[in-house]
Automatic annotation (TrEMBL), chain A:
Keywords: Membrane, Transmembrane, Transmembrane helix
Organismal lineage: Bacteria, Bacillati, Actinomycetota, Actinomycetes, Pseudonocardiales
Protein origin, superkingdom: Bacteria
Name used for this protein in its record: ABC-2 type transport system permease protein
Keyword Membrane carried by entry: yes
Record flagged with keyword Transmembrane helix: yes
InterPro entries: ABC-2_transporter-like
Transmembrane region(s): 21-47, 59-78, 119-135, 141-171, 202-220, 232-252
UniProtKB/TrEMBL annotation, chain B:
Any one GO biological process: response to antibiotic
Gene Ontology CC, one term: plasma membrane
Topology within the bilayer: Peripheral membrane protein
Coiled coil (residue ranges): none
Superkingdom assignment: Bacteria
Record carries keyword Calcium: no
Domain ABC transporter per the UniProt entry, residue ranges: 14-248
Species the sequence originates in: Actinophytocola algeriensis
Protein name stated in the entry: ABC-2 type transport system ATP-binding protein
From TrEMBL, chain C:
Origin organism lineage: Bacteria, Bacillati, Actinomycetota, Actinomycetes, Pseudonocardiales
Annotated keywords: Membrane, Transmembrane, Transmembrane helix
InterPro entries: ABC-2_transporter-like
Pfam families: ABC2_membrane_6 (PF06182)
Keyword match DNA repair: no
Transmembrane segments: 29-52, 64-82, 125-142, 148-176, 183-212, 232-254
Superkingdom of the source species: Bacteria
Record's protein name: ABC-2 type transport system permease protein
Length: 264, 317, 270
C-alpha cells in the first residue's frame, strides 16, 4: 500500500537536493532559528531560577517533550500549510486527480528534509531533560516517556491540518494558523501555571495544549496538577491526540468537498 | 453509457461589494442543468464561450468539484465519493496546469506515475513505447520538465494521462498556446487514440479546428446550458448555414443581374460572391455559366466559427 | 539634495503602498490576531519570571506588560521579514530596469516601506495594544513628551530596519543564494533587538556591545525603552540619538553598496 507514497517522497527529496548549497544553508539555519526559542527559555530562567512554581529541571522536561513533538509534526505534515498556495493557483485540481489521498500527497509533495535537524535537536533536549529531572521511573512512566512525544506530534499535526483546512474557505487568513501552531508550541513548553484567566482556560484545556507536555510531564514527575486537574487526566494525552486528529480529519474532508477550484 | 449526467448543476455564491462596507451575496449557476450521455469509444467536442461552464462540468465529471444538484456517473462510479477509484480509470490533461513534476526529468515523472497508478511494468512499458513513437518523446525524455517547451510539455502531459490505460480521457484546452506544428502533432495523436476505439475522449477547446478534425459529435454550452448536441452537419442544418460560391469572371458583373436561388453578397472587380438560398450549388453554377463568362469558381463550406458565433449570440437573447 | 518633484514621487509611492496594504483585509486581520495571541504567551511568561522577585532586569511588571504588547504591535510596523520582491528582482536581473529609473532605488524602497509601516501602525499596531490594554495593567508614560519621543523612535526604527533589509537584498548581487544572508539577518535581529526577550537580561558587556556595535537594538529595544521611560528622559534622548546615528551609517553604507552594484552591472552587463 505504501509504495506509491514512498516513491513520491524519494522523488521529492531527490528534486530538492538538486540545489545542494541552499539545502545545506536551510538545514543549518532552520536549526539555529529553533534554538533561539530554547535560548529564550534559558535566558528567562537564568533571571530568577523558577517559572510558575516549577524548578528548572522540571520545566526542561516540558520544554523537551514540546521540543521533540513539534518538529516531528512539522516534519511530517507541516507542509500542509502550503494548501493555500495550491488552492489559490488551482494546483489542488491536479492533487485531486491522482488516485492517492490528497492530504498525503500535499504533505509529501514539498517534503522538507531540512526540518529533520530540529527533530535531532529536540531528541537531544528530551533525553537530557529525562536524565536530569526527578522522574518517578516505573513501567507505566516508561511507556508514557515513549508515547508522550508521539501523542504530542499527533496533536500538533492535527492542529496543522485543522488550520490549513481553513484555506478552503478563506485563503488569506493563513497567518492565523501560526497563532495556534507556533503559538501552541510556545504555550505547551511552559507550565500552565504561568498563564492566567480565560487565556489559560481556552488554550490549555479548551484547545488541549496542556495535554502535549505539561500534563504528561506532571505524570512522569509524580506531581499533581496545582491547578486541580484530576490525577488520571495527566495520562490522557494519547486519547486527546486521537480525538483531535479525528476532528481535524473530519474538518479536512468537509474542506475538500467545499473546494471551489479557480475557474479557468 | 460510460458518462451519464442528468440535470447536473453547480452554483457558486459570489460576494460583491455594495458600497464601502456592505457586501451582497448572489448565487451564480456556472452549470445549470446539463444532461449528457456519452457512449464508450465516442469522441466528444465540448465547446462554449469563456465562462460558459465547460471547465466546471469537466471538474464535476472528474471528481474535483462537488455538484450542487443533479446526478453524474462516470465509468459507473459517482465521481466525488469514489474519486480515488475513478482516478485510476480516467486520464486528465488540463492545458494550463501541469500533472508532471517540475524538477524531475520527464522519464522519472513517468516512472513515478507508474507507481502512483500501480500499473504493471509490462503494460506501462508497452504504452510508453506507443506514445514515444507517436509523439517523438525520445529527444527530451531526460530533460527536467521545467526546461521543456510548451509543445514538448503538452506531449509529455498526454503521455502521462494515458500511461495507466484510462477508459476516459478528459482534455481541457490541450492545444492552447501551441504552435502550428505542435497542434498538428497533438491532433494527429488524438486521432490515433480515437481510431483505436477503446478510449472515450471528452475535449474542450476554443480552437474549432480541433473539433473539425477530431470530433463527430459536438456539444455546445452557453450560460451553463446545453444549446446544441449533435453532429457538426446537424449544427449547420439547424442554423441554416449557407454555402457560398465565389466566381472569377472574364468580364465585369452586369449591374442588376439576379440569379434564382442565390443572393449576390459582394462584387469586387471581376470577382463575385454568391450565397445559396434554396437552390443547389449545381443549379446555381449552371445558371451562372449561362449568364456570364466564367474563368474560375469555388464552392465554400460554411465556417464553423461563424455558426458557433451566431449560436452564442442566439443563446444570449 | 532632494528636489520637490522627487519628494512628490516618493510621497505618491508611499501612499500607493499604504493603499495596497489596505486591500489585504483578511491578511491584516490574521496578522493582528496572531500578534495578539503571541502577546498573551510572552506577557504571561515574562510576568511569571518577574513574579519571583517583583522585577525582571530592572523592569517592573507594568513595564514588562507595556514592553511585550507594544512590542507585538511594533512587530508588523518594524517589518523584520519584509518582502521577497527586491531580492527576487535582483536574482532574475529585472533590477536593472529599477536602477535605471530616474528615481533612486533605495529612496523608492524606503518610501514604499514607510507607506506600509503607516498602514501597519493604524491596524496591526492598534489591535494587539488595545487587547493588551484591556487584559493587563500597562505602564503609561509619566511625561507627555515621551509619546512624541516614542513616535520619533518608531519612525527611526522603521528606517533602520528598511535600510538593513535593503542591504540584505543587495547582497544578492554577490551571493549565489540570498537566503543565507536573510537567515543571518533573521537570527541576529531576532535575538539582538529585544524581540524575543528584553536584551537587558543579557550580561552587561554583551548588552553594551549590541547597543554600540550593531543596529539591532535600534529596531525594537530602543522605542520600547523610550516608551517605558527606562533611565528617564535623558536616556531616552540618548537612545534616539543612537538611532539617528545608525540611520546615517546604514544609509551611507546603502549608497556605497548600491553604487558598487550598479558598477558591477555596467561592467558585467548583469
Amino acid at each position: 500500500m505504501a509504495k506509491p507514497y514512498s516513491k513520491l517522497l524519494t522523488a521529492q527529496i531527490r528534486s530538492q537536493t538538486q540545489y545542494r548549497f541552499s539545502f545545506g544553508i536551510d538545514l543549518f539555519f532552520s536549526t539555529v532559528l529553533t534554538s533561539l526559542d530554547l535560548v529564550t527559555v534559558w535566558v528567562l530562567f537564568s533571571v530568577n531560577g523558577s517559572l510558575g512554581g516549577f524548578g528548572g529541571r522540571e520545566v526542561l522536561l516540558m520544554v523537551g517533550i514540546a521540543a521533540l513533538s513539534f518538529p516531528l509534526a512539522d516534519l511530517a505534515v507541516g507542509n500542509v500549510e502550503r494548501l493555500r498556495v495550491f488552492v489559490r493557483t488551482g494546483l489542488f485540481d491536479a492533487v485531486l486527480l491522482r488516485p492517492l489521498s490528497p492530504l498525503v500527497q500535499l504533505v509529501t509533495m514539498d517534503f522538507a528534509p531540512r526540518r529533520a535537524g530540529r527533530v535531532v535537536q529536540g531528541t537531544v533536549i528530551y533525553v537530557v531533560a529525562l536524565l536530569n529531572a526527578p522522574v518517578q521511573w516505573s513501567p507505566v512512566v516508561w511507556g508514557l516517556v515513549l508515547v508522550a512525544p508521539i501523542a504530542g506530534a499527533v496533536f500538533f499535526g492535527a492542529v496543522f491540518v485543522f488550520f490549513a483546512t481553513v484555506a478552503f474557505w478563506w485563503i488569506d487568513v493563513g497567518e492565523i494558523s501560526n497563532a495556534f501552531t507556533y503559538g501552541g508550541k510556545d504555550v505547551s513548553a511552559y507550565p500552565m501555571t504561568v498563564f492566567g484567566g480565560w487565556f489559560r482556560r481556552f488554550f490549555a484545556y479548551g484547545m488541549g495544549f496542556a495535554f502535549v507536555a505539561y500534563l504528561p510531564a506532571l505524570a512522569m514527575l509524580g506531581r499533581p496538577d496545582p491547578l486541580g486537574v484530576p490525577d488520571w487526566v495527566r495520562w490522557c494525552s494519547p486519547l486527546t491526540a486521537l480525538l483531535v486528529a479525528v476532528l481535524a480529519g473530519l474538518f479536512w474532508r468537509t474542506g475538500v468537498r467545499h473546494y471551489r477550484s479557480t475557474g479557468s | 453509457m460510460i458518462i451519464q449526467t442528468s440535470l447536473l448543476r453547480k452554483d457558486f455564491t459570489v460576494r460583491k461589494k455594495a458600497g464601502r462596507f456592505r457586501r451582497t451575496r448572489t448565487t451564480v449557476s456556472a452549470v445549470d442543468g446539463v444532461t449528457l450521455s456519452v457512449a464508450e469509444g465516442e469522441m466528444l467536442g465540448y465547446i462554449g464561450p469563456n465562462g460558459a461552464g465547460k471547465s466546471t462540468t469537466l471538474k464535476m465529471l472528474t471528481g474535483v468539484l462537488t455538484p450542487s444538484g443533479g446526478t453524474v456517473s462516470v465509468c459507473g462510479l459517482t465521481p466525488v465519493p469514489q474519486r480515488i477509484q475513478l482516478a485510476r480509470r480516467i486520464g486528465v490533461v488540463f492545458g494550463q496546469r501541469s500533472q508532471l513534476w517540475w524538477d524531475l526529468p520527464l522519464a522519472e515523472s513517468f516512472t513515478l506515475l507508474r507507481h502512483i497508478y500501480r500499473v504493471p511494468a509490462a503494460d506501462h512499458a508497452m504504452r510508453l513505447k506507443y506514445c514515444r513513437s507517436l509523439l517523438d518523446l525520445d529527444e527530451f525524455l531526460d530533460t527536467p520538465v521545467r526546461q521543456l517547451s510548451l509543445g514538448q510539455r503538452m506531449r509529455g502531459e498526454l503521455t502521462a494521462a494515458l500511461l495507466h490505460g484510462p477508459k476516459v480521457l478528459f482534455l481541457d484546452e490541450p492545444t492552447i498556446g501551441l504552435d502550428v506544428l505542435s497542434k498538428q502533432a497533438v491532433r494527429g495523436f488524438l486521432g490515433e487514440v480515437a481510431a483505436h476505439g477503446d478510449t472515450t475522449v471528452v475535449l474542450t477547446t476554443h480552437d474549432l479546428a480541433d473539433i473539425e478534425k477530431l470530433c463527430r459529435r459536438l456539444v455546445v454550452i452557453d450560460h451553463g446550458r446545453v444549446v446544441h448536441d449533435g453532429t457538426l452537419e446537424e449544427l449547420h442544418a439547424t442554423y441554416r448555414s449557407k454555402r457560398r460560391i465565389v466566381a472569377d469572371l472574364d468580364a465585369s458583373w452586369p449591374e442588376g443581374l439576379t440569379l434564382p436561388g442565390a443572393v449576390v453578397e459582394s462584387v469586387e472587380g471581376q470577382r463575385v460572391t454568391l450565397t445559396l438560398e434554396g437552390a443547389t450549388a449545381g443549379e446555381v453554377v449552371a445558371r451562372l455559366a449561362q449568364a456570364v463568362p466564367l474563368r474560375d469558381l469555388s464552392v465554400q463550406e460554411p465556417e464553423i466559427e461563424d455558426v458557433v458565433a451566431r449560436l452564442y449570440g442566439q443563446a444570449r437573447e | 539634495m532632494l528636489s520637490t518633484s522627487t519628494v512628490r514621487v516618493l510621497a505618491a509611492l508611499a501612499g500607493a503602498e499604504f493603499r495596497r496594504y489596505a486591500t489585504y483585509r483578511q491578511a491584516t486581520f490574521a496578522g493582528a490576531f496572531t500578534n495578539t495571541v503571541f502577546g498573551f504567551v510572552r506577557c504571561y511568561t515574562l510576568l511569571s519570571v518577574a513574579a519571583v522577585t517583583g522585577q525582571m532586569a530592572g523592569y517592573d511588571p507594568a513595564q514588562l506588560v507595556t514592553f511585550v504588547w507594544v512590542g507585538q504591535g511594533l512587530l508588523a510596523v518594524v517589518n523584520y521579514w519584509g518582502q521577497q520582491e527586491l531580492p527576487e528582482r535582483v536574482r532574475t536581473g529585472q533590477v536593472v530596469a529599477d536602477l535605471l529609473r530616474p528615481v533612486d532605488l533605495m529612496a523608492t524602497f524606503v518610501a514604499a516601506d514607510v507607506g506600509r509601516a503607516g498602514h501597519a501602525m493604524l491596524t496591526r499596531f492598534v489591535v494587539p495594544v488595545a487587547v493588551g490594554l484591556l487584559a493587563f495593567d500597562f505602564y503609561l508614560p509619566a511625561h507627555a513628551w515621551t509619546y512624541a519621543l516614542f513616535a520619533v523612535s518608531v519612525l527611526l526604527a522603521v528606517l533602520v530596519c528598511t535600510a538593513c533589509r535593503y542591504l540584505v537584498a543587495l547582497s544578492a548581487f554577490w551571493l549565489l543564494d540570498v537566503r543565507g544572508a536573510q537567515m543571518v539577518w533573521l537570527v541576529a535581529s531576532g535575538a539582538g533587538s529585544g524581540l524575543y526577550f528584553p536584551i537587558t537580561v543579557l550580561p552587561d558587556w554583551l548588552v553594551l556591545a549590541l547597543w554600540v556595535g550593531t543596529p539591532f537594538p535600534s529596531l525594537m529595544q530602543a522605542p520600547l525603552d523610550v516608551l517605558v521611560e527606562r533611565g528617564g528622559t535623558g536616556h531616552g534622548l540618548l537612545l534616539v540619538a543612537g538611532q539617528v546615528a545608525w540611520v546615517l551609517v546604514l544609509v551611507a553604507l546603502g549608497r556605497v553598496v548600491q553604487a558598487r552594484a550598479v558598477r558591477r552591472l555596467v561592467v558585467q552587463g548583469g
